[in-house]
Specification:
Largest sheet: none
Family: Belongs to the Frigida family.
Radius of gyration: 51 Å
Number of strands: 0
InterPro entries: Frigida
Pfam families: Frigida (PF07899)
Shape: rod-shaped
Distance between the termini: 154 Å
Keywords: Developmental protein, Differentiation, Flowering
Protein name: FRIGIDA-like protein
Order of helices and strands: HHHHHHH
Strand content: under 5%
Amino acid sequence: MGSSPDPDELIEFAQPSFDEFQRQTSLMTSCNLLWKELSEHFTSMEQNLMKKSEALKLMIETLDHQTQTSIELLKHREVTVDHSVEIAAGKADERARAALESLEKARDIGSNAEDDGEVDDGDGLLSALKSLCLKMDARGFWDFVIARKKELENLRSQIPVALVDCVDPPKLVLEAVSEVFPVDKRGVEGAGEKVTNDFGWACVVI
């Protein structure tokens, strides 16, 4: 028969196994805690990334909406500008046709006016004035006015209407009256000839 084991030997044999178990238990606990900490960290990172992704998505959608709105506004403005250009071109064509008609009508009237110093009626006077205004003929405009002192009332009413069709009304008026205002140049041209005609009334009318 074999001898029975010594109790002290059993204690010595069991002691290392228990210490190893405690060590492994402590290691597993540490690993679990570390895993939990890492899981929480990555979960927090994932949530933050999702929030940032949603914010970025919302920002992109807002920018897309603003871009689309801007494009629509630009298209609307382009259509409006095109429409305005068409209207302006139409008005320019109308004015060009009216100017040509006025020039054609005033051609004969102007010739007759140079011959007898008179025009047939108010419409003829207006046509002649418009013709001169359209051509920016300041000297012709001045000569035409001073030759018609008897038609002063008609001139007062028709000159403003005729000047509307002028390219640069102030320039035409200033050049027209510059013959006598602010300095009367007729004395210089007459080489000593005494000038007696007072054209102040014409300056006022123009």
